[in-house]
Write a structure and sequence with these properties.
This protein has a seven-stranded parallel beta sheet with strand order 1-10-9-6-2-3-5, covered by helices on one side. A three-stranded antiparallel beta sheet has the order 4-8-7, with helices on one face. The mean pLDDT is 96. The chain is of the alpha/beta class and 243 residues long. The protein contains seven helices and ten strands. The site of fructose -6-phosphate (F6R) has 14 residues, from loops.
């Protein structure tokens, strides 16, 4: 595991975008695993800037996103499908047919999770998986649990996640109660993993996840066992790491 300490959010985003750029340049038809949330927005902005300058070409890239709310359709502005189009897909020359987000409108959870897992396998796996880190150590929607979830599955959102997300919806009742997410096993199969974390509020979990015990109670801690992980943290998020 490589830990790169960046000065601030902008520097973290630039460093992460450099790593993704290197992936696209060295393998133009690579498969990127992508994440939503506030952590990767700056990374996407930086990639768009380099694309606009003519330094990056997404025409052969494919993508698979980590997760999606169950029950939200593509036009819902809180769907992860919508987020990805707004922050990246509609701003670069990626072929929309080669972008994939779990289908939140598929009511049959088992069918959708199986389809998604098979889709990733049909691509030959993920070359580079981008992740953010939740305050409780979650990655994707893999929340602290007694065991690591292996494959793409449907999760019941915890009360605290619903509470945290209700600000984006008209009321707590409108927040989806479930989501489809890649499993820990799916994430661990990616050839390379890049995780971006910023802010002092994440300093405790960064220390716990990357220097603490490997336990499903801190899902991201499993990344310590992956052979090719790069953690890009800003100074604030790195403030509780051992010197
Ligand atoms: C996003 C995702 C989540 C976020 C995590 C951090 O697709 O799966 O695990 O990466 O909740 O969110 P932010 O970046 O908003 O702090």
């Amino acid at each position: 595991m490589r830990i790169i300490v960046a000065k601030d959010y902008k520097d973290m985003s630039r460093k992460a975008a450099n790593i993704i750029s290197a992936q696209i340049i060295t393998k133009p038809n690579c498969v990127l695993g992508l994440a939503t949330g506030s952590s990767p927005i700056g990374t996407y902005d930086q990639l768009v800037e380099w694309y606009e300058k003519g330094d990056l070409d997404f025409s052969q890239v494919s993508s698979v996103n980590l997760d999606e709310y169950r029950g939200l359709d593509h036009s819902h502005d809180q769907s992860y499908y919508y987020f990805m189009h707004e922050h990246l897909f509609d701003r670069v020359n990626i072929d929309p047919a080669h972008t994939n987000v779990p289908d939140g409108t598929e009511a049959d959870a088992e069918k959708e999770c199986k389809r998604y897992e098979e889709l990733i396998a049909s691509y030959g796996g993920v070359d580079l998986q981008l992740l953010g880190l939740g305050h409780n150590g979650h990655i994707g929607f893999n929340e602290p649990a007694s065991a690591f979830d292996k494959v793409t599955h449907c999760v019941d959102l915890t009360e605290s996640t619903i509470e945290a997300n209700k600000r984006f919806f008209a009321s707590a009742d409108d927040v989806p109660k479930q989501a489809y997410t890649m499993g820990i096993g799916t994430i661990m199969k990616a050839k390379k993993i890049l995780i971006v974390v910023s802010g002092e509020d994440k300093a405790d979990i960064v220390a716990k996840a990357f220097y603490g015990d490997v336990t499903p109670e801190v899902p991201a801690s499993i990344l310590q066992f992956h052979p090719d992980v790069t953690v890009v943290v800003d100074e604030a998020a790195a403030s509780k790491l051992p010197k």
